[in-house]
Amino acid sequence: MAAAARAPPRLLQFKLVLLGESAVGKSSLVLRFVKDQFDDYRESTIGAAFLTQTVSLDESTTVKFEIWDTAGQERYKSLAPMYYRNANCAVVVYDITQPSSLEKAKAWIRELQRQADPNIIIALAGNKADLASRRAVPSEEAQAYASEENLLFLETSAKDNANVSELFTMIARKLPLESAANAQRGGGRGGSTLGGAAAGQQRPGVDLRGNQGQGNGGCC
Q: Where is this region: Disordered (predicted)?
């Protein structure tokens, strides 16, 4: 009996936004995840930076993240809704050596809970774990807060490449993969360009395998 034909692997696309105070290491996390690089000295992000990277979950499913790395400076705060609108997931980053950065992270999380898609997956990342000797935020405190707010949580180090890929893989495994695949099979792309979707429109993700030959279209 001939073996059944194996279904082609799925490539599902989701929008991810990084939020957090300036200098907590958001851009360093993304650079490590996307390019496996780390720079000791990086200029502050202006507005937002856009990158993409994939995570293979198994032989049949790969998740492509469209990553918006937002600036942490207060003067750019008003731009943030433009980037987290219709986002499927968010990483809110704080610096384990700076308690004030955790308070800022909590403020971002409250804003996401009020204004982002109600189904958004939020991960709290305590970055700069390589500076354990200067730790000012106990991991137990952040973990308790994450559990209380139903958030994913990991401590990371972009410098040492600790838990960086694990963070994004953990998020990928929580995404509504079947909903995204079903939306594509039903003929809908499920995505939108930045600012091009109606406010509050849910973005289940895009199956890129089903759109080969078409332009990738929007950036977010």
A: 182-220
Give the integer Cα–Cα distance in Å for 70 and 74: 11
| CA 102 from centroid of its chain's CA atoms | 18
Q: For residue 200, with 0-12 CB atoms within 10 Å meaning exposed, 13-18 middle and 19 or more buried, which class applies?
A: exposed
* Superfamily of chain region 10-181: P-loop containing nucleotide triphosphate hydrolases (3.40.50.300)
Strand, coil or helix: 107: helix
Q: What residues contact 61, with CB distance under 8 A and at least 6 apart?
A: 9, 10, 12, 177
List phi, psi (to 5°) of 124. -100, 125
Is residue 29 pLDDT above 90, yes or no?
A: yes
Residue 24 tokens read as 């907590």
